[in-house]
């Protein structure tokens, strides 16, 4: 019988899907087995130490000897640093049920570099929630995402953030203060225009979306609005699929002032009337500037019913010691 072309193409496609899914499932299973195996190795090491056969110190000779002997017996994968992090994996996650099957050993290797239990829990939860690659995880840790989110809440909020991750439920959850845009590679003291900032954000859109967080979908730049015979342009327009609303972002290279807030309020009113459709929630405006005056913000936004949010950005990675000091002070408060 003559093979029907369309049916044959469908057959090839269906077999192809099976192959791809099979390979993905196999990779996930291998990863799960690897993580669980390393967790068990960590458990053996800790139990060996607890029985008094070796002091539980990172500087002890146990890990050196294990690394050397296991490498001779089984090959690569048993460097001293790997052995150290296998031990840490068990110490931080004593219940194996708390390990994620979606995270690789490379994810856990990076996560366990964190300085506190709270950070470890947060980055594990958030990596799983937002499906970060290892490269994305490294960037978020380097930009101190946990500290930046934690300092915008209270002590109870910090503990919730660590145990549950960052979940966007309200427009205010969109903010990080500051947003870190080090990936633009603009020197701190270099003179630049708002258009330069916008151009670089578009050129590094994938990195910018990672910094903005889960749920943002890019729609347009320099979005044109005609209001009362005048033309206005919004720097960046997004839609947030979790909040189900438009998110308008205007960039300011200097300090945000009351005129910027009034203009954003105008844009939001326009979007409510002209752009929002059935099922959309009210739009959210974000003014992203290098500086903001908290008193001015309070007075300028007090009578506005629209959701106008103000946040700072910085072109360099934050000072870890400074943020850790502020976070520790927050956690010490009752």
Tell me what you see in this structure.
The protein is α/β, with parallel strands linked by helices. It has three domains: 1-108, no CATH class; 114-168 and 319-334, no CATH class; 179-317, Trna Endonuclease, Chain: A, domain 1, CATH 3.40.1350. It is 52% helix and 16% strand. It contains 13 helices and six strands. It has helices at 5-50, 62-74, 80-92, 105-111, 117-130, 134-142, 145-150, 155-164, 194-203, 205-212, 258-275, 294-301, 320-332, and strands at residues 179-180, 216-227, 230-240, 245-256, 284-292, 307-314. Helix 1 (5-50) packs across helix 3 and helix 4 (105-111) runs parallel beside helix 6 (134-142). It starts with a helix and ends with a helix.
Beginning-to-end CA distance, first to last residue: 80 Å
- The CATH architecture designation of the largest domain is 3-Layer(aba) Sandwich
The strand order across the widest sheet is 1-6-5-4-3-2
For the secondary structure, the number of strands is: 6
Q: Which geometry do the CA atoms define?
A: globular
Order of helices and strands: HHHHHHHHEHHEEEHEHEH
CATH topology heading of the largest domain:
Trna Endonuclease, Chain: A, domain 1
Mean pLDDT metric = 87
- What is the count of helical runs? 13
Percent helix: 40-55%
What structural class do the secondary elements suggest? alpha/beta
CATH C-level name of the largest domain: Alpha Beta
The stretches of 5 or more residues where confidence is low (pLDDT under 50) are none
């Amino acid at each position: 019988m003559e093979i029907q072309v369309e049916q044959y193409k469908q057959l090839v496609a269906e077999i192809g899907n099976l192959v791809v899914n099979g390979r993905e499932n196999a990779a996930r299973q291998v990863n799960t087995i690897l993580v669980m195996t390393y967790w068990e190795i960590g458990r053996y090491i800790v139990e060996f130490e607890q029985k008094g056969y070796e002091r539980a110190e990172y500087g002890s000779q146990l890990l050196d000897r294990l690394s050397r002997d296991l490498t001779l017996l089984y090959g690569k994968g048993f460097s001293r640093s790997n052995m150290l992090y296998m031990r840490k994996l068990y110490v931080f996650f004593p219940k194996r049920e708390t390990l994620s099957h979606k995270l690789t050993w490379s994810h856990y290797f990076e996560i366990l570099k964190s300085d506190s239990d709270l950070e470890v829990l947060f980055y594990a939860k958030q990596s799983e929630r937002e499906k970060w690659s290892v490269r994305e995880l490294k960037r978020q840790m380097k930009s101190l995402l946990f500290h930046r989110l934690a300092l915008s809440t209270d002590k109870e909020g910090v503990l919730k953030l660590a145990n549950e991750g960052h979940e966007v439920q309200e427009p205010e959850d969109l903010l990080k203060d500051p947003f870190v845009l080090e990936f633009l590679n603009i020197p701190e003291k270099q003179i630049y225009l708002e258009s330069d900032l916008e151009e670089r954000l578009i050129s590094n859109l994938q990195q910018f979306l990672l910094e903005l967080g889960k749920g943002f979908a890019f729609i347009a730049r320099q979005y044109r609005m005609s209001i009362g015979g005048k033309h206005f342009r919004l720097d960046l327009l997004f839609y947030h699929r979790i909040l189900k609303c438009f998110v308008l972002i205007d960039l300011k290279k200097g300090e945000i002032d009351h005129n910027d807030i009034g203009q954003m309020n105008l844009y939001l009113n326009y979007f409510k009337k002209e752009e929002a459709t059935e099922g959309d929630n009210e739009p959210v405006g974000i003014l992203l500037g290098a500086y903001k005056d908290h008193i001015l913000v309070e007075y300028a936004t007090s009578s506005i019913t629209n959701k106008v949010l103000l946040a700072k950005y910085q072109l360099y990675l934050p000072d870890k010691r400074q943020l850790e000091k502020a976070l520790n002070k927050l956690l010490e408060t009752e």
